[in-house]
Design goal:
The complex is a heterodimer of chains A (262) and B (423). Chain A has 262 residues and is mainly alpha-helical. With 423 residues, chain B is α/β, with parallel strands linked by helices. Chain B is built from 14 helices and 10 strands. Chain B has a 6-stranded parallel β-sheet. Chain B has a 4-stranded antiparallel β-sheet with strand order 2-3-1-4, sandwiched between helices. The chains are: A mainly alpha (262), B alpha/beta (423).
């Protein structure tokens, strides 16, 4: 119920920012900001309510994992809006949030993890991995937006999105910063997952398909960041890499969780 | 009472005439005082900018008095009045009100929607208050003009898209670089276009501007003007690696910046974006540079097409602005019409007041009421009764005056006393 209400607030945020992009009425910008922040609060309260009233952890169903991804995506969108004073950021992130919200409605009963004893390391592992993945998702969104805006300026043909999008400099900055922060958080998630696995599997590491793909995703982002630090990568290269990285993440956590056990 | 405007602008007169008529701080007081010697000009406002000189007057006979103003202006500017008449336009009543609204909104400007005119109109009203004469009419006109100007700017996008090449170039730069205050510009050439672009960049808070020119002294002069640094022309390629924005407008027959120059520099810059603005013909910047990743080259044709698109956008917005102006003109004319009824309302109230006072006096005599407190209370009750009695007719008179129709006595009575249907 609370999560549905949060999704409704995100939809309202998208509608107001959509109207703002046509009418450029500042009141609509404030409204979209209000809906986004309210959505986060309700979304956060949803987790608190699960914790307190049902004494459940938040990682039982795919729907709840979607809710957590949505929460981190919205949190990042609000942070970026407040930092860069660009309300149109919602216009590009909210559709993903809404789609995930709708998808979550159809995956209420899919169990992504078995009923393990919930240890401390699993409690660290899940939110960190999901927060890292959400930031990778934001990075990929801004990678795509970078390509769109760069193409418009390069080809001197300005479409509808030209005015809505910030400078390519800022798009590139958000693209690489979210990737870097996401990588740090994701690393913490992966490490805590390893430790949890060692406890869970009696001191051994079982290389499940999910674990292998998680390591591949981690390596992709790690290699990009290292090359960027040592040799430097063009903004286009960073944008491309972030899109490649998120594909790997999707394969790992959505594809494998839904189709392969492990 | 009419509002009339006598004026000339960039469409009706050449600059030689406009400059003769221009009203500056030196002669403004003199012109106001000479025109206001005519005691049938009750209020006066002069708007004088580089593209227009206009005299707004409130008068009871606009035909005679506009001509009198024209004679004074002609004699003050040493122009033959018959010659001057060829360049002027006259608007009266609704058209004069609409004209000042159009002027303040930038719809009558050389550059459609330019924002400076709004400030100039506000300044003109301030000067009119100081040197001229501003009463009820012009006070209301000022309020309405400012409101219309603001409304047009906030509710339409008339001033949003840049329509000058140099300004459009700087706006494009903002779509490439997030923060110009951290960026460096290199200006090759010190001509008018470069100067304008450099000034726009400076106005947008660019961190540093390097200026180079064949004549070093001119580069130095422009650098001084925009707070930049002048560099020798043969050294400018050494500065390319520091430059995020390169603006070039020279008379050179060959490319000033080649593909190889930039290709080499981009590695040193660690692929930081570079924006090249080539305003020269023949071109100064090799167009192939645009193929290098993270470099953007805009030549004069590209910028002109951006400007042309922006102009079309502004023309579309001008139609929306005209709707706002038409509505505001109607509101102003309603107010003007309502002024006619004010003396009548005053007389009605006065008559009621007199009747009330005489009735209180008569009653006091008859009932032998001498206590001041009691008389005061009776007066209060009677005043309240009178106000309630008058409220509906006065409001109905004020409201119905706006529709400007002629009514028969029975119709008017029904409207004034709010009678819906006779039983």
């Amino acid at each position: 119920m609370l999560f549905d209400f949060a999704i409704l607030l995100y939809i309202l945020c998208f509608v107001s920012v959509g109207l703002y992009s046509f009418f450029e009425d500042e009141r609509l910008a404030y409204l979209s900001k209000f809906f986004a922040i309210s959505g986060i609060l309700v979304n956060g309260f949803y987790f608190v309510s699960i914790w307190f009233f049902y004494s459940k952890t938040i990682h039982l169903t795919l729907s709840q994992i979607f809710a957590l991804i949505i929460f981190f995506l919205a949190l990042t969108a609000v942070y970026l809006n407040l930092k860069h004073k660009k309300v149109t950021i919602y216009f590009f992130i909210m559709p993903i949030i809404i789609l995930l919200g709708i998808a979550s409605l159809y995956h209420q009963d899919i169990m992504t993890t078995r009923e393990y004893r919930t240890g401390f390391w699993l409690f660290v592992h899940l939110p960190f991995t999901i927060a890292g993945s959400s930031l990778f998702m934001v990075s990929a969104i801004f990678g795509i937006l970078y390509f769109i805006q760069e193409k418009q300026i390069k080809r001197k043909r300005f479409g509808f999105t030209y005015k809505l999008l910030p400078s390519i400099d800022l798009l590139n900055k958000i693209n690489r910063t979210t990737m870097l922060v996401g990588f740090t958080i994701f690393t913490a998630g992966i490490l805590s997952g390893f430790i949890w696995g060692i406890y869970e599997w009696g001191g051994r590491i079982i290389l499940t398909p999910k674990l292998i793909f998680a390591i591949i995703s981690w390596l992709i982002f790690g290699v990009i960041i290292i090359i960027k630090k040592i040799k430097g990568i063009t903004p286009r290269g960073t944008a491309f890499a972030s899109i490649l990285g998120i594909i790997s993440i999707i394969v790992t956590y959505i594809g494998l969780a839904m189709f392969i056990k492990g | 009472m009419h509002l009339a405007v006598l004026g000339l602008n960039h469409t009706t007169s050449p600059v030689e005439i406009r400059e003769k008529l221009a009203v500056s701080n030196d002669n403004i007081e003199n012109i106001y005082s000479k025109i206001l010697q005519n005691d049938r000009i009750y209020e006066l406002l002069i708007i004088s900018t580089c593209n227009r000189v206009e005299y707004y007057m409130v008068t009871d006979d606009f035909l005679c008095n506009v001509d009198a103003v024209l004679q004074i202006v002609a004699s003050e500017s040493n122009i033959d009045p018959f010659e001057l008449r060829k360049y002027t336009y006259i608007h009266c009543g609704v058209d004069a009100v609409k004209h000042i609204f159009r002027v303040a909104s930038g719809l009558d400007s050389l550059v459609l929607g330019e924002p400076q005119i709004f400030g100039q109109v506000k300044d003109a009203f301030t000067a009119a208050r100081l040197y001229g004469r501003v009463n009820t009419f012009l006070n209301k006109l000022e309020d309405s003009t400012i409101r219309v100007g603001k409304k047009v700017r906030t509710q339409t996008k008339i001033a949003e898209n840049p329509v000058s090449v140099s300004y459009a170039a700087v706006e494009l730069a903002k779509k490439i670089f997030n923060d110009l205050s951290k960026r460096v510009a290199l200006v090759i050439g010190a001509g008018e276009m470069c100067e304008l672009a450099a000034k726009h960049l400076q106005g947008n808070g660019i961190k540093k501007i390097y200026i180079t020119n064949r004549t070093f002294e001119r580069a130095e002069a422009l650098a001084k003007d925009v707070g930049g640094t002048a560099i020798q022309l043969d050294l400018f390629k050494d500065y390319l690696k520091y430059a995020d924005i390169v603006i070039s407008s020279t008379g050179s027959p060959n490319y000033m910046v080649s593909f190889e120059d930039v290709h080499h520099v981009m590695n040193e810059r660690k692929h930081e974006p570079m924006f090249f603005i080539d305003i020269a013909v023949p071109r100064d910047i090799d167009p192939r540079i645009n193929d290098i990743e993270n470099t953007y080259v805009y030549d004069i044709d590209d910028l002109k097409s951006v400007v042309e698109n922006n102009k079309k956008q502004r023309e579309k917005e001008a139609l929306r602005a005209m709707e706002i102006i038409e509505q505001s003109v109607d509101d102003f004319m309603d107010w003007l019409e309502s002024l006619k009824i004010i003396p009548i309302i005053k007389i009605i109230r006065q008559q009621f007041e007199e009747i009330k006072n005489s009735e209180i006096e008569r009653m006091a005599d008859k009932l032998k009421i001498v206590d001041d407190g009691e008389l005061y209370r009776i007066n209060l009750i009677m005043t309240s009764y009178m106000n309630k009695l008058l409220h509906t007719p006065i409001m109905n008179i004020k409201n119905s005056i706006k529709d400007g129709k002629d009514y028969s006595i029975s119709e008017a009575s029904k409207i004034i006393f709010g009678i819906k249907e006779l039983k």
